[in-house]
Amino acid sequence: MANVVWHKKLQILLDLIRDDLDHPELPDLWDTIYRTDRFYGRLGVPVTERDLQCGGVCRDMGVEAPMHLRMRGGRREAVHERREDEERHTAPMSDEHKAYQERILRAAEEGGFSGGSEVRTRVGRSWIQTDTLVEGADGRRIGWEVQLSTIDQSGLRGVRARAAKAAKNGITPAWHTDRAAYAQRNDTHWTRSDHLPAYVIARTGDLRIVSGFRALEFWHCDTRSLYPCPHGVRRCGKAHATPKPRDVLFDDMVRQTAAGTIVPIQFRAGTTVHRYWVTSADHDRLENLHSNDTGLLHEREATPASGASRNRPTCQPAAAPSTVDAPPPQPDLPALPVQPPAPAIETAPAAAEQHAGRSRQPAHSTTGLPSELITLQQAADDAQLQLQHLHDHHERDLQRQVWRDAAAAVQDAVTHYARTKRLNRYEVEVRLRRLVRHTAR
Ligand SMILES: [Zn+2]
Ligand SMILES: [Zn+2]
Predict the structure, then answer these.
(1) Counting ligands in written order, which one lies closest to the CA of residue 81?
(2) What is the mean pLDDT of residues 432-437?
(3) Which tens digits make up the pLDDT trace of 115-138?
(4) Cα–Cα distance, 20 to 41 (Å, whole number)
(5) Lower CB count within 10 Å: N or C terminus of the chain?
């Protein structure tokens, strides 16, 4: 039995626990569906050819499990047609799984975030069920799904589709496992801890994520660099990023994903799309690097992801800017100061938004970003561009300082703006850069 039924023809989920099946907009829904199902039964239409399927774990795993309806002692019930589908429901949640759910909620709470287990999120006439949902800063929602080695491989069916559906509906999927084979899958951003008993997971001590998080190492492609150029045998003179596996504490992961200081990233190397987590600072710096690149990073895509390229893949976020200026080769790494994230709760009094300076961006009114920010970002970008045109050592030192000061000014302004407007600082920054760099000047 299951409480949730998927109606194939109506394309809706039905919650049998609720009187109205959780569809107040469709009166007498149960009567209609129940009568129809019994009518089919009398006609001898096989259950597999009717409209009802399991909308619970079977559907979550991508299995079409036919069901029929019945009344038992005044209770509405949906029954699996096949025994193997029913068995999918009886596997109890392991103690380890429960311990993880509790740990996620505790860690989130300690970081000032709320959450819940088995949370249902409405999506049109259907919904998404999340193992443990953390409500992060600025409306960010992290959907934790824990898949431990206690489940069999069939539990992993439909991971990509489920993760994509969650992401499409504003829930950042965060899948966690203790089995290496799962963590190596590239269908979502897996994190992995070692296989541990429930009492260890439940404790407050260190619980480490041993794979799924990377630190990006930024390096300059010249004769002194440790790595070969991802584009070929010669030194291209550009900046590249190499992801390095790093451990991170599980509790920190929970809190920082909620705060937005750890974010998911994906890039293609050969035929494989790699997915893992990085700090928002690294993500930002990578985006900065790409927006200053001439697009040469795409070249290696045709080569298969084997040998060295698997260990040293070329970073290429899926959200790579679609239009970039083509500056001359950039001899300096972006070195913008990293700012702390905006607090979840803003206590400073709101200051009046400043509209100083004349904007060169007619589009700013539609983006809602103050012209002051746009002007500062343009100044920083201009300073960086000038640096690229200089060759004299002393002049470059001076200009580098100009650039750094300009970059620091825009960072401060973004922080101030995000705080007073109670916005996500990181998102403001990304929006600002996109606006300034992808608008013809
Ligand atoms: Zn089922
Ligand atoms: Zn290179």
Answers:
(1) 1
(2) 82
(3) 999 888 888 777 888 999 999 998
(4) 23
(5) C
**What length is written for the chain?**
441
User: What is the pLDDT confidence band of residue 395, given thresholds at 50, 70 and 90?
Assistant: confident
Tell me the sheet residues that pair with 67. Answer: 80
Q: Taking residues 204-214, report their average pLDDT.
A: 93
Closest ligand relative to 240 C-alpha = 2
Average pLDDT over residues 16-37: 92
Phi, psi of 418 (to 5 degrees): -60, -40
**Left if phi > 0, otherwise alpha if psi is -120 to 50, otherwise beta: which for 51?**
alpha
- What is the C-alpha to C-alpha distance for residues 91 and 61, in angstroms, rounded to an integer? 14
How large is the average pLDDT for residues 351-369?
45
Residue 78: pLDDT over 70: yes
What would the two tokens of residue 409 be? 């000014």
User: What pLDDT, on a 0 to 100 scale, did the predictor assign at position 332?
Assistant: 36
Q: How far is the CA of 231 from the centre of ligand 2 (A)?
A: 6
- Which fold is adopted by the domain 95-209? Trna Endonuclease; Chain: A, domain 1 (3.40.1350)
CA–CA separation, 375 and 358 (whole Å): 8
Q: Residue 330: nearest ligand to its CA?
A: 2
Find the 227 Cα to ligand 2 centroid distance in Å.
Answer: 9
Q: Report the alpha-carbon distance of residue 132 to residue 142 in Å, rounded.
A: 8
Distance 289 CA to ligand 2 centre (A): 13
CA of 55 to the centre of ligand 1 (A): 7
In which residue ranges of the chain is CATH 3.40.1350 found?
Answer: 95-209
Residue 348 CA to ligand 2 center (angstroms) comes to: 45
Mean pLDDT computed over 246-257? 96
List alpha helices for 261-370, DSSP H. 280-291, 308-311, 364-367
**Chain segment 396-429, per-residue pLDDT in tens:** 888 878 887 888 888 888 888 888 887 777 778 8
Residue 151 banded pLDDT, cuts 50, 70, 90? low
Residue 263 structure tokens: 């974010």
Query: Could you count the other beta carbons within 10 Å of the beta carbon of residue 74?
Result: 5
Half-sphere exposure of 272 (CA within 13 A, CB side): 17
Share in percent of the chain as helix, strand, coil (round to 5): 40, 20, 40
CA of 225 to the centre of ligand 2 (A): 10
CA of 71 to the centre of ligand 2 (A): 69
Q: Which two tokens stand for residue 356?
A: 């100083």
Please determine, for residue 273, whether its predicted confidence score (pLDDT) is greater than 50: yes
Contact yes or no for 428/342 (Cβ under 8 A): no
Query: Contact, 358 vs 326, CB < 8 A?
Result: no
Calculate how far, in angstroms, residue 148's C-alpha sits from the geometric centre of ligand 1.
20
